[in-house]
Amino acid sequence: MGLDMGIHKRLIKGTSKVAMSMEEFKEWVLRDLDADQDGKISKDELAEAVRRRGEWFAGLKAWKGMRSADSNRNGVVDDIEITNLAEFAQKHFGIMIIS
Fold first, then answer.
1. Tally of CB atoms within 10 A around 47
2. d(CA 47, CA 97)
3. pLDDT, tens digit, for every residue of 29-87?
4. Which residues 6+ apart lie within 8 Å of 68 measured at CB?
5. What SS3 string covers the chain?
6. SS3 for 24-50, per residue?
7. Distance of CA 5 to the CA centre of its chain
8. Which of 35, 55, 57, 69 is the most buried (most CB within 10 A)?
9. Closest Cα partner for 97 from 23, 45, 37, 27?
10. Residues 27, 9 contacting (CB under 8 angstroms)
11. pTM attached to this predicted model
């Protein structure tokens, strides 16, 4: 399942960005990225999301994503770090978080 699965919500006119609220982003992350359904996103789960978007260097991009999102360095992005992951997704997944 790719980024567009279940979030065809609002395309920003004149761009390829998808707009969603932070709550919609959290739902998307847990539904489409959290493969083992443990409520946390691992580097491998993030790499798979990058791969599904057809991008190259998925492992490297996932590593960068984890470095920017995993603020306590425990190896996963959990609920309290979801805002960090949203910032990464806005830069690399074509998502715009709206209020």
1. 19
2. 21
3. 999 999 999 999 999 999 998 898 888 899 999 999 999 999 999 999 999 999 999 99
4. 84, 87, 88
5. CCCCCCCCCEECCCCCCEEEEHHHHHHHHHHHHCCCCCCCEEHHHHHHHHHHCCCCCHHHHHHHHHHHHCCCCCCEECHHHHHHHHHHHHHHCCEEEEC
6. HHHHHHHHHHCCCCCCCEEHHHHHHHH
7. 13
8. 69
9. 23
10. no
11. 0.78
Location of structure tokens 């083992």 = 36
17-30 pLDDT per residue, tens: 788 999 999 998 99
State how far Cα 20 lies from the chain centre.
Answer: 12
